[in-house]
TrEMBL record:
Gene3D superfamilies on file: EF-hand
UniProt keyword list: Calcium, Lipoprotein, Metal-binding, Myristate, Repeat
InterPro entries: EF-hand-dom_pair (IPR011992), EF_Hand_1_Ca_BS (IPR018247), EF_hand_dom (IPR002048), Recoverin (IPR028846)
Record flagged with keyword Repeat: yes
Protein name: EF-hand domain-containing protein
Family affiliation: Belongs to the recoverin family.
EF-hand domain sequence ranges: 62-97, 98-133, 146-181
Name of one Pfam family that matches: EF-hand_7
Domain of life from the UniProt record: Eukaryota
């Protein structure tokens, strides 16, 4: 690994650790898991690496379509690879971790351009990518295709001050009052 890249990756991880207030143990555990699955180039995770990771997590219901959809949703800088922080966010969603942290993570993932707000196009994209591919593997109960109108309605529910942007506060409020549906699209593990 080139030292410049190593440095860049370290900074990215440190930023995430600070933002999510991860303990040293959490940091080491998640970074170690990331490194373990970076088989091809040792610094980013390819789709194949990611597939191996899902198998390790026993996520056997994931078909190729859903694997691609989740990978694309997580690859927020769209470079075709998962960086350490892109991967770690998802890993945290799957393991035992405070729900508040998971809400923060999903907000960040949906806010793809890191503007600090979720715009309508971002939530449409998130829903389309995940709900559409999911329809192929779940039963009829959940396979209803969401229309743009449904998503727009959801957006205005979350956007409580109606300024056409969802900020972190509105998003948290929605998750608290309406349940973790948006988190579950990424299979976030929620304790009872
Ligand atoms: Ca990426
Ligand atoms: Ca945004």
């Amino acid at each position: 690994m080139g030292s410049r890249l190593a440095k860049q990756q370290k900074e990215e991880i440190n930023k995430l650790v600070t933002k999510l207030s991860l303990s040293d143990e959490d940091r080491d555990y998640t970074v170690d898991t990331f490194r373990k699955f970076c088989r091809f180039n040792m610094k980013t995770m390819s789709r194949d690496d990611f597939k191996d990771f899902l198998a390790m997590m026993n996520m056997t219901s994931y078909n190729e379509l859903l694997i691609s959809a989740v990978f694309q949703v997580l690859d927020t800088n769209a470079d075709g690879e998962l960086s350490a922080s892109e991967f770690i966010k998802y890993f945290i969603l799957l393991i035992r971790f405070p729900v508040a942290t998971k809400v923060q993570i999903v907000f960040d993932i949906i806010d793809r351009d890191s503007s600090g707000c979720i715009e309508l196009a971002e939530i449409r994209r998130y829903y389309h990518d995940l709900a559409t591919s999911r329809a192929y593997l779940v039963g009829a109960r959940d396979s209803r295709q969401l229309t743009d109108r449904d998503i727009d309605k959801l957006f205005s529910q979350i956007d409580s001050d109606s300024n056409k942007k969802v900020d972190a506060k509105e998003f948290e409020q929605h998750a608290r009052t309406s349940g973790p549906e948006l988190l579950q699209l990424l299979d976030a593990y929620i304790e009872d």
